[in-house]
Amino acid sequence: MPGKIQILSELLMKRIAAGEVIERAASVVKELLENAVDAAATEISLSIEHAGEKMIQVADNGSGMSEEDALLCVRRHATSKIRDMHDLDAIHTLGFRGEALASIGSVSRMTLTTRAAEDEEATRLDIEDGEIRDVLKVAANPGTRVRVKDLFYNVPARRKFQKTTATEIRHIMSAFRRIALAYPGIRFTLYLDDQRTLDLPASSLKERIHDLLGAEKTTRLVSFDKQIGALSMHGFVSRPGEFRRTRDDQYFFLNRRAVQHKSLIHSVLSAYGPRMDGGEYPAYLIYLEMDPRFVDVNVHPTKNEVRFADEKFIHDALHRVIRDTLRTPQSAPDLKLVSGRKWFAASPPSGRALRFQDPGQLTLDVQKPSVPEDTHPGAAFPADPPALWQVHNRYLFSQIKSGITIIDQHAAHERILFEWALGHRDRQSGLSQQLLFPQTVQLAPDDFEILVEMLPFLEKIGFGIRDFGNLAVVIEAVPFEVKPGGERELLQEILDEYRENQTRSHDRLEAVAAAFACKAAIKSGDRLNAQEMAALIDRLFAAQEPYFCPHGRPVVINLTLDEIDKRFGR
């Protein structure tokens, strides 16, 4: 009887290994960019077609390889980075496992063209299913070019689980951005579907951060540079008060390798302490340099996780440096004076250019639900409404027949704007107010890609945004529902909120509408006059779902007289 245990074939072992290293197109991008950096390249070009499904290419002007080395580098566990166990304990390069090219070649059609400076000709390898199909001598400049086509063509299960084009592009941009931030002294060029999207010249770290994160985000950061013992720490962190709703723009680099570590995250967040409310996150770009003998990067095939020989020392040192940085005068937030504004206008301002002239478009296209009179959302309010009170510029209080109702003003306006925005999904464009002074916004690459995805719906609700080139856009108009002022901040907040919402919503338009509603709505702390409070309540109870905001949080809480009596012991 034959045994049940079998030795796997070489091809199957390669496929399994590839599954650990190559999860998606961004994994290929990461591995190829790391190889280019390790080859001492000063210029690296990344080209992407169809979100990497059709083609990924990385070209560099690095050291290149001889034919002998080229034939070896596509085999498993073949590397120039380490020779023995001693080298494994002191890794200075990004790559060292010798798996990347073999793994990529086993799940794609790969062409590697490379030439060492001392060679007259380049070597080209054509690889398919992990096997070298052809070896040619060709003309090429010194350096290496790896072209990957038809990724996962022979692994249908993996290909089926790839996400939308926009999602895959965001992952690619994230991988590209991490390498570019780690090596500002290298020129990086990015092409998406034959269009040059980014050209990052060799620069200082601060200039590279400015190019990738944008001017708005960069001005909200404060720098630090400190040496404690053998540990060098430098980078940038958010000023107190300059927080975001997402964890984007949070980077740790250890010896120029992008890493993840819970203890490092805790050390930074705890340094902010009470300066930061729940649900808020700082941006940070933190660069740690230490002797590689005291850190283990061989934890996971992706090389993103690390272990420290003295984790407590690293945690405490970084915490102390960030805490002290936040206490310096340069970290103090800018004071922004905001004049009082009217939130609800009865009609469009005269003389202002509007995208549509039909005033009927101002009304919500929503029907009140057919429910018995005594359970109607507004039935609890007396026919002659009593006065409304705004408490701490956050909640609205009013007497109702059964007791007291409390309304969260932000959540209420958020529900109103959410349903208003969804009511425009079938329209060509919404009612706009043209800006007297259009606002130019410089976006980070991933934010620009998100905006391209969101733009058709944003135009439906009244935004007028045009491309200004080089990842900049011009806001020329905003929806009539939006208060004037702060257009740059509003757009950035909508992009951040959408990034967070899209993972929770199955409907992309709902995610855009929720992002817009959350960031365009009245905020906690905004003072409302009596007319604005009354208008808010009227519109809230005309909504289809007035009791919950788009995120599922309650909008209205009723306290009955019985509940109040119990609190007073009556």
**CATH fold naming of the largest domain:** Ribosomal Protein S8, Chain: A, domain 1
Low-confidence stretches: 81-85, 334-379
In terms of structural class, how would the helical and strand content be classed?
A: alpha+beta
Looking at the structure, what is the overall shape?
elongated
Distance between the termini: 85 Å
Kindly state the mean pLDDT as a whole number?
80
CATH superfamily of the largest domain: MutL, C-terminal domain, regulatory subdomain
Provide the spatial order of strands within the biggest beta sheet: 5-4-3-6-2-1-7-8
The total count of strands amounts to: 22
Going by CATH, the architecture of the largest domain would be 2-Layer Sandwich
The number of helical runs is 17
Rounded to an integer in angstroms, the radius of gyration calculated over CA atoms is: 28 Å
Strand fraction:
15-25%
Percent helix among the residues? 25-40%
Q: How many domains?
A: 3
The first-level CATH class name of the largest domain: Alpha Beta
Largest sheet: 8 strands, mixed
Give your account of this protein's structure.
The protein is of the alpha+beta class and 570 residues long. The protein has 3 domains: 10-205, Heat Shock Protein 90 (2-Layer Sandwich); 214-331, Ribosomal Protein S5, domain 2; 359-559, Ribosomal Protein S8, Chain: A, domain 1. Helix content is 32%, strand content 23%. The protein is built from 17 helices and 22 strands. It has helices at 10-21, 25-38, 67-73, 85-88, 100-106, 156-160, 165-182, 205-213, 215-218, 262-272, 311-326, 409-422, 445-460, 487-501, 508-520, 530-540, 561-567, and strands at 43-49, 55-60, 109-115, 122-128, 131-138, 143-149, 187-192, 195-200, 221-228, 231-238, 250-254, 257-259, 284-289, 295-296, 307-308, 389-391, 395-400, 403-408, 432-442, 464-469, 472-479, 556-560. The strands form 5 sheets. An 8-stranded mixed sheet has the order 5-4-3-6-2-1-7-8, with helices on one face. Strands 9-10-13-11-12 form a 5-stranded mixed sheet. A 4-stranded antiparallel sheet has the order 16-17-18-22. A hairpin with a 2-residue loop joins strand 11 (250-254) and strand 12. Helix 1 (10-21) crosses helix 5 (100-106), helix 7 packs antiparallel against helix 8 and helix 10 packs parallel to helix 11. The protein is elongated, with a radius of gyration of 28 Å. The N and C termini lie far apart (85 Å).
